[in-house]
What we know:
The protein is α/β, with parallel strands linked by helices. Helices cover 38% and strands 20% of the residues.
Amino acid sequence: MTAGGAHTAGHGGAPRLTPRVGDLAGELSTLLGAAGIVEAAAEARDLIAAVAGESRFWPRVNADAAISDRLADRARAVARRRAQGMPFAYAVGRAAFRHLALRVDERVLIPRQETEELVDIVLRERRVPGGVVADVGTGSGAIAIALAAEGAFDRVIATDVARDAIDLARENAAALDTAGATSVEFRVGDLLAPLAGERLDVLVSNPPYIAFDEAVELPPLVRDWEPVHALLSPGHGLDHTRRLVAGAPALLCIGGLLALEVDSRRALQVAELVAASGAFTGIQVYRDLSGRDRFVTATRAALATR
């Protein structure tokens, strides 16, 4: 940041006043409002905070402070992308997940708040230090990196069918300050294929679970921007989940945890799939903070239960 009222050289050496945070917020709010974005003023402030690497309250508290031309120009570029319809996280190139600030773009889904709860469930259910956890369909690496940083696992493996998603997840793991965290092993492949030969203590996944005929119901910011392969699943949204449930028993140790994020409309169906496999006990359906059935967990049984 520059001192209030500072001048910089413009074209031809003519000085121009360095913009103040509040003035820039007003400028960007006008741009976003003209594009039909609801709560444009709040988004403008959040956008400036994200570009500056500050808390979301910083622009309001520092409205009279000057902001560097470099940051102002970056904020304008981000605002133009947002005004063109790009989701906020993609426009700024960052998304918050628990204590992490993850780089995101169109290669991966934008991490959701409810998925943070899936991490909480795993950490709560696996209190004993050590063991191996695998995050299937890692995308940006959000779940795997959070578990590596907050858990006490010996190994953390992250897989994804998309190589470009794994590339981005690797960048996130390398860039984030997670001193003392377990390193994450990244592997490319379809669902459980990259885990062949492993013995896992935890298998966690937020797989695609939207049915193809439900895609039209998704908000345009999701449907038109986020990667389709990470959203939609055949078999009325259950194909990926069904394959995970079928393959998990061969990978999980006795007493190992299966933890899945699911479509709230089909959570009970997923629980029934897990029960029908005969390989699990202690099947639970958990609600998210909105009160919707969102997570299914189960423990690998010592013997088949059917």
